[in-house]
Amino acid sequence: MQATIHHNSRKYTIDLTEPLDISIAIDTSKQHINAWYLDDPEIVPVASGDWVGSVAEGADVNFNNISFNPHSHITHTECVGHITEEVYSINKHLNTFFFLAEVVTIAPEQLENGDFVISKKQLQHNLGNKKRDAIVIRTIPNLLDKKEMRYSNTNPPYMLEEAAVYLKEKGIKHLLIDLPSVDKEKDDGKLLSHNAFWNTQGVLRFDATITEFIYVPNNVVDGTYFLNLMVAPFENDATPSKPILYKIEM
């Protein structure tokens, strides 16, 4: 089934039967991603007296409680409320969900201090003169173990402030990345790239989002796609999300 999308006075055709899911789900049956020094999430049946919410244990339905943190355990999308004193809600500020996106693959560069980073120069090389609503960043190496990495205290790669400034000035509204954060794990609370992207020293970019903990399979080639950025309806600074890419029919 095809759909036609009108975007900036152009028509694009996508095939809705071929979605490319770049989210990572919570699956408590195996090891999966975790960051920020928290215990793993839990999905457990409700227990009330002798009743347990599990069909396998005699109940009529499966009836589970789920305990998790979106920043630590799952693909999630966040708004500027993640770093402001007033907690703005992603559910209120993300009001449209289809965006023209560029998928790029980047090998983080190593600094003299040993950190691996994404630089402005790398983004400029990948985006050039392209005008996009969103950028989807796949870092390499891109092995399946990204879906089960334990990131706490590992100093994973991050984005330099100059790169986030470049994306803001480029007009990118939606930044998606396969890392736990666009910022350094331990940076004394500076959050340079978050602040730069959301322009916290000027007019706040309420309609801009950052999505972390994605996974872009290797069979998804670099290039232009339409992104459907679906979020769960939580009134919170961040919420679990399910970003889907669609190839553009030529």
UniProtKB/TrEMBL annotation:
<dbReference type="InterPro" id="IPR007325">
    <property type="entry name" value="KFase/CYL"/>
</dbReference>
<dbReference type="GO" id="GO:0004061">
    <property type="term" value="F:arylformamidase activity"/>
</dbReference>
<dbReference type="Pfam" id="PF04199">
    <property type="entry name" value="Cyclase"/>
</dbReference>
<dbReference type="InterPro" id="IPR037175">
    <property type="entry name" value="KFase_sf"/>
</dbReference>
<protein>
    <submittedName>
        <fullName>Arylformamidase</fullName>
        <ecNumber>3.5.1.9</ecNumber>
    </submittedName>
</protein>
<keyword id="KW-0378">Hydrolase</keyword>
